[in-house]
Fold each of these.
Amino acid sequence: VSERLKNLRTTIQEINRYVPGKSIEEIAREYGHSPAEILKLGSNENQLGPSRFAVEAIRQAAGSVHLYPDVDAAPLKRALSEYTGLPEELIVASGGGMDGVLDTLMRMFVREGKDVILPTPTFSYYEISALANGGRPVFVPRGENFAINTDQIIRAADDASLIFLCSPNNPTGNQVSEKDLRGVLESVNALVFLDEAYVEFADKNFIHLVKEYDNLVVGRTFSKAFGLAGLRLGYAVMSEAIQRAYMKVATPFSISRVAEHAGIAALEDREHLKESIEMVRRGRTQLSKRLNLETYPTQASFILAETYPHLASEITTKLLSKGIIIRDCTSFRDAGKYLVRITVGREEQNERVIELLNNMV
Ligand SMILES: *Cc1c(COP(=O)(O)O)cnc(C)c1O
């Protein structure tokens, strides 16, 4: 780096960039497919598309984008209060998706050199965000069936400022148990961030625990079940004390007018939500029954499959040549080289993956 950039913090120079799922444009160019025939099952997007109500709300908001949005997104918070059953004083909404909430919390809680606990394998943005804020990631590998290792987490958390739990966990699909979650919350002084990005597809959620534990923040997103990944809208619920502090430091106007209106409309479209959940539940059964690969039980909108003795990278590359994008999990820390993650789609989409994959293994 040049002399004039010497103030760029060394920790940031050392961060490995987030590895996203491949994009349709990238694969079309690389393999000469037409974009329309590509099946994108690598980023857990909603395969039903967005709610029609949300699309209409986006059109209507378009004419007013010369105006700043509501400063605290109050109408959206009211809608979220209704959806979650929690008071508005415990809710924050954020542009930049849930990742936006996460960055703000990092700025609030992580000090230079303080530990951030990550049960691996898990969503890789936590590690990047921790490093960017001067934190020291401490990895605690998961145990059998990817359950978190509660005792080890508690022991490691002695000097930690933050603990990340993801439920259902990306990329493994399993949820944390209530016993483990309460065990961690009661034994540590660190903030516990529980990522519920996929919770609409799961049997249980832990949102109500924010009323019991002031060190818990539950993160949510409009990117998965609500089908609005392209809009970048997230929210979180937390104790009133954290919420008040959060509102002091959050970027003002972080939620665009368009995103706010679309979010409210999506929350109102219960039919779209129900269809999305039903599609995923049916698809999970279809994939786990029919794939000739060992799959793990999942509560999310994706399924994790074992590719051994074939390398995950080989399988995903072969599928790309057929126009199907799934996620090679090799870049997830502690995931090994034999796991792939497949987004659950509509029946005929799942069928296409099953047929091609079964021919390869
Ligand atoms: C998709 C995802 C998110 C990110 O959500 P955005 O709101 O799109 O930023 C967060 N956590 C996990 C585990 C995810 O898979």
Note: The chain is about 40% helix and 15% strand.
Amino acid sequence: MGVEARRERRPHPVEPLEIAVIGVPMDLGSGRRGVDMGPSAIRYAGLNEGIRGIGHRVHDLGDIDVPISEEVEEGEPRLRYLDPIVATLQSLAEMTAASVGAGRFPLVLGGDHSITLGSVAGAARGRKLGVIHIDSHPDFNTDETTPSGNIHGMPMAALCGLGDERLVTLGGRFARAPHVDPANLVVVAARDIDQAERLNLRRAGAHVFSMETIDRTGFEPVMDEAIRLAADGTDGIYVSFDLDAVDPSLAPGVGTPVKGGLTYRETNLAMEMLADCSRVVGCDIVECNPILDVRNQSGELSVVLALSILGKRIW
Ligand SMILES: [Mn+2]
């Protein structure tokens, strides 16, 4: 394809969407605290004004109630805080399903990555979705393979039907588990994969594009292929974006930083290509941790990325 054919293709101005912003101040699924403040940091960085600035309407539904760890039992060591996490994610699944039912695009702000299990379970109600999971970790552990017991390392496996029944079947009485076919799950930017997690991914048949693949082939072909795989035979793509996919020099406010991440432009290109493909039906931006951040850089980057996936153009 020549340069001309690769020109930015989004219509300008963008087609107006109704965006449902849902905050989930959840940190029970993570080993470190502070991500419960992520939704505040992202709103403070100007999310809603930015979304209106590109021509969409914003319905900010506020934050879902999440208990703090002091008021709940930790429970089983291999499934830490399972009960309060399941209760919270059931509400999130209901809210996401209701937003989709009202014709809105859910933009879910984390919170730790366990929340993607709730948002996708809700968004996938009554239809088949692919998932593009942009993260330095595949989050494909189960209670049997987890090294930490932290549920934020399990949502992708649970969506694909692997792991504890209470996570796998989450999503309410209309939910049909598994919510996602692993053939339509694509992990992008992975660079920290546990040994048993690797086996889980291979057995399930999920797709993984590691940083090594990105280095060897370039980022644009990887994203093209990720979109093709997630869209293949599905009714849309849900994007699950963990800020730790980005290099920690650009997003220091994350609980589990891993060197060698995506650059600023690669990260934006991912979001711009997703906007261009017109198949994205919802997006989570998770693991923003203001306590570990430097002057809200990670909150501000979250806003830049949210606007890119909602169609903001450079030119
Ligand atoms: Mn993650």
Note: The first strand starts at residue 18 and ends at 24.
